[in-house]
Every structure is written in structure tokens, then in C-alpha cells.
Amino acid sequence: MHLSDTHTLLQKLQFKQNRVSFYGHTLTEEGLLPSEDKLQAIKDIQAPSSTKDLQTLLGMVTYLNRFSTKMAELVAPLRELDKKNVHFRWEPHHQQALDDIKKELCTKQLISYYDSDPNTVTILQCDASTLGLEAWIRQIDQHGQEKIVGMASRCLSPTESRYSNIERECLAVMFGLEKFEYYLLGRQVMVETDHSPLEQIFKKNLAETPTRLQRFILRSLKFDIEVKYKPGRSIPLADALSQICQKTTKEITTSNQSDVHFISTATRLVDDKAVREAMADDPIMNMLKDTNLQRLASIQEAVSTRTVGLLDIQM
């Protein structure tokens, strides 16, 4: 520390501790937990009264996202309020979502420390719904005990929510692989899914798969994975996640009231004149235009005078 010119405060140093709080987390001998003050803040939080308060709540929930794979599903109703041109109005299904978030985060799910031994069995489990993607890593130690090493989830974009079921399941696999890339690269990984066709897709010739799935599979080639099908009831979190998804979807769609949040009187989304002016000022477009004109001139000189008129194209 002296050589690196690093200084510490004696009153902030702790030695021989079984538990240490650090940046909103509690480090124990067994693994990682959310800190008590963060959990207490979650318990005490009240329903937000504005979009700014909602963003503060979502930020806190996102910080503790690693302790649950259900967060993407649970916060989906709240994220709808945070979208542009959406009037903020707190409704009963928003309060229910907040209560579910509190309950989920306060269960104190332990995240075990990652074992870098290549002989340790590492399993990536993935699941997808119409609202979000979930992925979590399990490792089996030398005593045969399974431990959760990492969990993650995210909401689907409007485009992704329109994917077919197999495309969403494949996207969930890619999300898990890329989210935990530094854990999974360079070691053999078992990928478990509750969607049986996905196992066969990863075994087929790449040219025989649909285009979108080809892109997903190409992104997975840098990983050493084996995709295995397991029924949803035998995957620890899959059934719970699907139930959460169905419950959340029902709560969102049962409201009989419709609200108009945005009205546009614009008849054209693109201004042709502005596009032409921008292209005229763009150096790359000018270079392409000059190249085409030069090529056209050379073609006109090479053909007979009878067909020159046919090539009189205005640029």
C-alpha cells in the first residue's frame, strides 16, 4: 500500500469477520446476500406518486436483480408507466406488482460463489415467457450439492414479444450465455430448457434452421454447450416463472378502461425535402453520385449512338 500510495482509515477496516457489507451486498462464508439496509428500504418503500419516484424504485430493484430471475416479470406493469407519452396513474395492479417485488426480494435468496474448477458441473437453465427472459446458473460441488451461482432476467422488447415460442426460448438461451459469458467461456456447460424442440434445433444442420434461429445459434458457437430438454416441473424455477407470467398478464389485461395517451396529427413521418437536402450535404452520398455519373458516361461512350438516348438518365 505504501508503494502504491494507497491510504486507508483505521475505523473503516474490519478483520476476521464472518459477514461484511459492501456496496449494498452482504458477503458471507456461503455466498452473497442483499444487505439489510437495502431490504429494509424495499420493505418501507411507498407507492410512487410520480414518474421520478417510479424511476428511483426501478433503479433500486434493478440493483438487486441478481437475487431473483422473476424481476423482469414482476416489474413489467411498472415499466409500462415509465414509457414515453404514458400518463402516470397508479392503479391496483401496479400496487400488486410492487407488493410481489417486495415479497420476492425479501426472501433473501443466497447467491453462492462461482467455482472456476473446470471439473465442476455447471448448468445454465433458461426460460422465456411472453413478457420476459430468465436465466440462472447452478453448479454441483464435489459433495453433490447444487448451488445457484447467478440469476438474471430482462423484459422483452415489443418486437421480441411477437416472436414465436421457439424463438423466444432460443433467445432466452442466448441471453443466459451472453449475460454470464465470463462464467461460461472456456468450459463445458449443460443448458437445460423446458422446450423440447429447442434440443433438436441445436443438433440440426445450421442451414436447415430458420433464419432468425440461425443468428441465435451462430452467436452461441463460441460456447461449449450441450442443450438438454427437461420437463418444466423438473426445472426448479420454470413452473414458478410461468405462473408469475400468467398472473401478471392477466392483471394487465383485465382492466375494462381504455386511456388515450398520445394523438398525432402528422400525415407523413419523413420530410422528403429534408432528406434531399441532407443527402446533398453528405460527402459519401456525393461521392457515390459522382461515381455513378462517371460510370454512366463511360457506358455511353462504349455503346452505339442509336442507344445513347436510352441511357439519358437524369441523376
TrEMBL record:
> Does this entry carry the keyword Hydrolase?
yes
Q: Which domain of life is it from?
A: Eukaryota
Read off the Pfam families from this record: RT_RNaseH (PF17917)
Q: Which residues form the Reverse transcriptase RNase H-like domain?
A: 117-218
Q: Which GO terms describe its molecular function?
A: endonuclease activity; hydrolase activity; RNA-directed DNA polymerase activity
Q: Which UniProt keywords apply?
A: Endonuclease, Hydrolase, Nuclease, Nucleotidyltransferase, RNA-directed DNA polymerase, Transferase
Q: Which PANTHER family match?
A: INTEGRASE CATALYTIC DOMAIN-CONTAINING PROTEIN (PTHR37984:SF7), PROTEIN CBG26694 (PTHR37984)
Q: What is this protein called?
A: Reverse transcriptase RNase H-like domain-containing protein
